[in-house]
Amino acid sequence: MDIPANQFKRNLLAKRHQVGMWVSLCSRYSAEIVAGSGFDWLVVDTEHAPNDIESVLSQLQSMAAYPVSPIVRPTCNDAVQLKRMLDIGAQTVLVPYVQTADEAALAVAGTRYPPRGHRGAGGVMRASDFGRARDYTQRCEAEICVVVQIESRQGLDNLEAIAAVDGVEGLFIGPADLAASLGHTGDAGHPEVQSAIADAMRRILACGKAPGILALDEKQARRYMELGSLFTAVALDVAVLSRETARLAALYKA
């Protein structure tokens, strides 16, 4: 059996823009719905959603039937979590709150087998087609993609050093946490935050790496794309459900 090609990674390296969405409802049924919606990539979130390893697995299985690239976000930069997510078939991981080059290197090491890292070697996990892809350990690195999140002032200060870490393919700016770190909690639209985001985009591109970001407002999302975002999340499933149901309730109760 062959190892699946990581189209998300290929598009990042080719500098092709990709549109994505956050998946936080922890349901394989809702994951299947959004997987068929036409997005290029979807993030199965465990940091701010009550997902566990089994619910992540079920959502990856639901998405597998569609031409969409799944990304999994662990709760933190933890080698054990990264190992388990890769073993169940995740090929791209989005590691939150990376602030230094050492932390970025730690994230990459968690996705590599020795001697290039410290990922534990399993034999019959889903990622290797349950052992049928016998050369998985030799070939998987080419299809694994590590994206780190820049979400703090310290992360901005160390941006070039983080981008220079071998194995980091993309840097994703987290507007909400970045705003909080800059002293504007709850106000990602503050001019200082927006200026920092624009500057970070330029610096990431100058390093030859792919910048990404989340924006729920269409005008803001298109601005980020113009600034050079190469993987832009434009929706959250929870937000879509919450806002649309509230709109419908208000419409018929008015």
Q: What are the main properties of this structure?
A:
8-stranded parallel β-barrel, 8 strands, 254 residues, alpha/beta, globular, TIM Barrel
Main sheet specs: 8 strands, parallel, barrel
Poorly predicted regions: none
The rounded Rg comes to 18 Å
Sheet with the most strands: spatial strand order:
1-2-3-4-5-6-7-8
CATH superfamily placement? Phosphoenolpyruvate-binding domains
CATH topology: TIM Barrel
- Second CATH tier, the architecture: Alpha-Beta Barrel
Structural class: alpha/beta
- Main CATH class: Alpha Beta
- Number of discrete domains: 1
- State the order of secondary-structure elements, H for helix, E for strand: HEHEHEHEHHEHHEHHEHEH
* Distance between the first and last residues' Cα: 58 Å
Q: What's the helical proportion of residues?
A: 40-55%
Beta strand %: 15-25%
Q: How does the SSE layout of this entry go?
A:
Layout: H1 7-13, E1 18-23, H2 28-35, E2 41-45, H3 53-63, E3 69-73, H4 79-87, E4 92-95, H5 101-109, H6 136-139, E5 145-150, H7 153-157, H8 159-163, E6 168-173, H9 175-181, H10 191-206, E7 210-214, H11 218-227, E8 231-236, H12 237-253
Characterization of the model:
By secondary structure, the protein is an alpha/beta fold. The chain has one domain: Phosphoenolpyruvate-binding domains (TIM Barrel, Alpha-Beta Barrel), CATH 3.20.20.60. The protein contains twelve helices and eight strands. It has helices spanning 7-13, 28-35, 53-63, 79-87, 101-109, 136-139, 153-157, 159-163, 175-181, 191-206, 218-227, 237-253, and strands at residues 18-23, 41-45, 69-73, 92-95, 145-150, 168-173, 210-214, 231-236. The protein has an eight-stranded parallel beta barrel, surrounded by eight helices. The longest helix has 17 residues, at 237-253. It is globular, with a radius of gyration of 18 Å. The termini are far apart.
